[in-house]
Amino acid sequence: MRQNLKYKQTDNTIENMIIKKNKILFIVIALTIPLLFSCKHDRSIKQVHINRVEQMPYLPEPYKMLDWREMTHNFDQYVFNHSLQGEYLPFIWLDNSQRNFPQQTFGLYTAIGDVRQGTEVHGGEFHEAINSLAALMSAGLVGIDKTYQHGLNYIRMSHNYFNVENGWNIVMNNTSGRVGQLGGGYARDWWYDVFPNVLFYAVGGLFPDERSDSIMYIVAEQFFRADSILDGNYHFSFFDYSEMEGRRSHIPFQEDAAAGHAWVLLNAYQKFGDPRFLDGAHSAIQALLSQEESRFYEVLMPFGAYSAARLNAQHGSDYDFHRILDWTFDGTNAEDGRYGWGIINERWGDYDVHGLQGSWSHNGGFAFLMNTFDMAWPLVPMVRYAPQYAETIGKWMLNTANATRLFYPNEIPDEHQFLPEKKNLTRNVIGYEGLIKKDHLGKPELEGVSPVATGDGPLWVDTNPDVSVFSLYGSAHIGIFGSIVEKTNVERILRLNCLATDFFREAAYPTYLIYNPYDTEKFINYVYEGKAVYLYDVITGKVVAENISSNARVAIPAKSALLVVEVPQELDLVTSNGRIMAGDVVVSYNIP
To answer: How many other CB atoms sit within 10 Å of the CB of residue 47?
Structure first.
């Protein structure tokens, strides 16, 4: 039996707490005894729910959970294979234009067969960071080394997305950041300018020895200057990082760019220690919270919730960020914004599609693969810093990870997809760009069918082939699920890795969110192998298993979550400054 875990308080109210197994004994000074008698016996962290998640089913149907980690490996092997031959193959090419840096880089097709791309078009220079950088991030998340693969260092090659030649000095979606150049066809669109930097930071965190630091520091400087100039007013379509001024156009205003600024600046502070970047992260979050309604535009809003939670936990802030979560899940009703952009919360035909991200208004609903993957990136690690959201995030992840399989052509019946006759080309690792409530491309045999796996590729360019409904740029983000989502021996109970996408974090022990959607208590086989640990549940403040060096049987209460930390068996838990520590490592930022 594990010895008593000694808690040493640093405040003047409670001198010591001692935990032995699941019993808590308080040793306190006399003045605090009346106060303790008034406390509730249940000291669990009270759970806070997201309204839209509350409306989702506990047991989505039909149910199937993919092996996302294996699919991530298969995606990398397929897409980065230069030797593939056949129509629309390979999916990768080398770009020798040497834009921004005197080195060769690479391009990936945004969608299969995209006529704007390849070595014969614009010298092969048009390719997108939200695709290439995401593919590198996904590989790194599941342990694939992209610093020397097929004789190429893809990480250093990706530096060409850092736009020096146009004077913006940030990572941009194209190596040439000029609007309308090289077949891009985009007007300036703020998320396209901010999100590549979020991706670049993730890749830099996963591959820290590839000379990315100087780029990351310059990006942080640019974002800090931009936030300082904006001074709380993000009411713009985009920001010119060369002229350092906000711009307005026909593109809806994108106030949630502040969330992207905050995430990058907070991580820049963690990496470089420059206090200005921490100040900038605070400033950007305050700008985001000053909004009166949801301005969720594409992917950035939930990064604001994560950043606010981390600022609260690590830096003593007190941001009430629940509204950011509501803005993310409920989406925007603003007529001058991206109306209807949020989280799908419906059953389409015979399929629960709850939890997918996209538009709940376009054609009755249109979810996108990339955006759905990206939601999990900030929200799963957020529960480390805000464990009061463990249950609601666990329930949402069960729904969204189940529904996301429907983007993949082997996981949805042929009669529910736009191009089943070409699905073998995808090897089931390249998904459709979207899942829509009703077909929008006018295919007669799909009339009245719901849902339909499809994509916008044929609409981007008149000459794009039908196979452009298959999206590499969306599928490239698969490593987010691949590193987070793990099945247990009990169907519908997942083990979610809370550290996988918690970039530039402080030292931490392995931490998992485990949610039980059933009406009864369930026991899972907790998979573990290594040096002995005990499992501490942050939510209840209890040890749920101890001295384990192999698999353990762990109970999950009905419709509840555990936030389990694997603590080395030889270490006691000590409280300090409102945190629970084991050695020099924070086990919990919240004391139940």
So the answer is: 15
> Between the CA of residue 385 and those of 157, 301, 380, 452, what are the distances in Å?
34, 17, 10, 38
Angle of helix 390-403 versus helix 369-385 axis, rounded to 10: 160
Residue 515's DSSP bridge partners are: 561
Other C-beta atoms within 10 Å of 432: how many?
A: 29
CA 364 from centroid of its chain's CA atoms: 25
Report the pLDDT averaged over residues 265-281: 98
- Residue 7 sits at φ, ψ, to 5 deg, of -105, 130
Between the alpha carbon of residue 91 and those of residues 77, 425, 488, 551, the distances in Å are 11, 11, 34, 41
Instruction: Retrieve residue 350's tokens.
Output: 């015979």
Contact 213, 204 (CB under 8 A): yes
Q: Is the pLDDT reported for residue 452 higher than 50?
A: yes
Q: Are 406 and 351 in contact (CB under 8 A)?
A: yes
Q: Residue 224 contacts by C-beta under 8 Å, 6 or more apart in sequence?
A: 265, 276, 277, 280
CB atoms within 10 A of CB 403: 23
Q: Read off the amino acid at residue 484.
A: I
User: Judging by beta carbons within 10 Å of its beta carbon (0-12, 13-18, 19+), is residue 410 exposed, middle or buried?
Assistant: middle
pLDDT tens string 353-381: 999 999 998 889 999 999 999 999 999 99
Q: What six digits make up the tokens of 44?
A: 């669990």
Q: How far is CA 514 from CA 188, 209, 554, in A?
A: 41, 33, 10
Q: How far from the centroid of its chain's Cα atoms is residue 561's Cα?
A: 20
Question: CA–CA separation, 135 vs 130, rounded Å?
Answer: 8
Q: Is residue 538's pLDDT more than 70?
A: yes
Integer Cα distance of 467 and 457 in angstroms: 8
Mean pLDDT, residues 464-479: 98
Instruction: Over range 545-564, report the average pLDDT.
Output: 97
Which amino acid would we find at residue 440?
H
What does the block give as tokens for 86? Answer: 């056949």
DSSP 334: -
| Among candidate residues 469, 462, 460, 401, the one with its CA nearest the CA of residue 435 | 469
In sequence order, the 6+-apart residues with CB closer than 8 A to the CB of 12 are: none
- Banded model confidence at residue 187, pLDDT cuts 50, 70, 90: low
